[in-house]
Design a protein that fits this description.
Elements lengths: L3 H12 L10 E9 L19 E4 L4 E5 L5 E6 L4 E4 L5 E5 L5 E6 L4 E6 L3 E4 L5 E5 L5 E6 L4 E7 L3 E6 L6 E5 L3 E5 L5 E6 L5 E7 L5 E7 L4 E7 L5 E5 L10 E3 L5 E4 L3 E5 L5 E6 L3 E11 L2 E8 L4 E7 L4 E7 L5 E6 L2 E6 L2 E8 L2
Antiparallel strand pairs: 1-31, 2-3, 3-4, 5-6, 6-7, 7-8, 9-10, 10-11, 11-12, 13-14, 14-15, 15-16, 17-18, 18-19, 19-20, 21-22, 22-23, 23-24, 25-26, 26-27, 27-28, 29-30, 30-31
Length: 357
């Protein structure tokens, strides 16, 4: 209950603000509420016809999936042990910090299989690709949604980056020694390579169609982003303006364009490694951030050095559609489905709708 009113107030303030500098596109607040009071959040009075499902991990044990109008479509709790969820929240695996098996469940808590394993599990968006990392982070085995181990495995010296595409079920892994891999939903290695000598992989992403990958690598002198085309194995690079001591968000589009938060700017990099667009932003502090893309619109969230969480929506031609600070939130995660923008903050959840001409 203590988180409900701050979320309500922030949402009410946002409701007074309509931002539409791009002709014909308007952004409206739909619903908001405290994370620990999802059943009592202010639901949208309008049914937008979007079959959305926004996953919310409430705490270490509880979770929910919210529909497009803010209703609770599914909810549950993990009774014991640890859990790793798929990106959609529709599946999860249970495991122990020191254990001998992982168990696979759907969102309703129905168990499908159990696999003898000492590793830490990671699930793709639809759980079609499961990565099992060993204790010293030097090797990853691959499994499918049915718990079948695949022939391929991935190895390197200390895993420093692991991610899945936000659409589809492609995976990407990078290591301290500069090696990186891109993996398909059936465990096929789509591409691999090495960063220049002396550089480590700091971040990695793969497009939703598996055609392109982005590798953020660097050392104490400079940071770069490498754009990799899977079919040919070719790559091009762009140098960043800042050194990043911790991970910053990357997004790789299906057409090979990479978007990256470079401290005080958002860079839009072409497949040839050319910076096509730069959006100046209030400087980002080290820590959590996210980037999503859907239907020509990018959503970027991060925490400013001044302390407020921030959301920016912009088109892929650089036109900014919306910019909003959330002083009560220490971080924001963003998800796009249909014409809805969903934010999961440290205290509250928020949903906006995008109206096009």
């Amino acid at each position: 209950m203590k988180y409900f009113f701050p979320g309500l107030i922030a949402g009410a303030c946002a409701a007074l603000f309509l931002f539409s500098p791009a002709p014909g596109i308007e952004i409206y607040p739909e619903w908001w509420g405290g994370i620990n009071a999802l059943a009592r959040l202010e639901k949208s009075p309008v049914n937008h016809g979007t079959k959305a499902g926004f996953f919310v991990k409430i705490n270490d044990r509880d979770y929910a999936i919210l529909g497009g109008d803010g209703d609770t479509a599914a909810a549950g709790s993990i009774a014991d042990g640890l859990a790793a969820f798929s990106g959609s929240g529709r599946y999860y695996v249970k495991y122990q910090k020191v254990g001998s098996a992982v168990e696979f469940f759907n969102v309703d808590g129905e168990r499908f299989w159990k696999l003898e394993s000492l590793e830490y599990p990671f699930l793709s968006h639809n759980a079609k690709l499961i990565m099992l990392m060993n204790g010293d982070h030097s090797k990853i085995r691959l499994a499918d949604i049915n718990g079948n181990l695949m022939d391929n495995s991935i190895s390197g010296r200390t895993c420093t980056a692991l991610s899945f595409s936000d659409a589809g079920d492609f995976g990407a892994v990078g290591f301290l020694d500069g090696s990186y891999y891109f993996v398909g939903p059936k465990g096929k290695i789509l591409g691999s390579g090495m960063a220049p000598a002396g550089a480590m992989v700091k971040g990695i992403d793969v497009s939703g169609n598996g055609a392109y990958g982005a590798v953020h690598y660097g050392n104490n002198a400079r940071d770069c982003v490498r754009i990799v085309e899977m079919e040919t194995g070719d790559h091009d690079e762009a140098e960043l303006s800042h050194l990043h001591q911790v991970k910053t968000s990357l997004h790789m589009s299906a057409r090979g364009y990479c978007t990256v938060i470079d401290v005080d700017r958002v860079l839009y990099i072409s497949p040839s490694g050319r910076v096509k667009m730069t959006i100046t932003i209030p400087p980002k502090r080290p820590g959590h951030s996210s980037i999503r893309f859907l239907n020509g619109i990018y959503a970027v969230t991060y925490t400013e050095q001044a302390g407020a969480a921030k959301l920016i929506l912009f088109r892929d031609d650089g036109v900014i559609l919306f910019s909003q600070e959330f002083p009560s939130e220490s971080f924001l995660d963003v998800s796009l489905q249909g014409d809805l923008v969903f934010l999961r903050g440290s205290d509250s959840v928020y949903c906006y709708s995008i109206h096009r001409p």
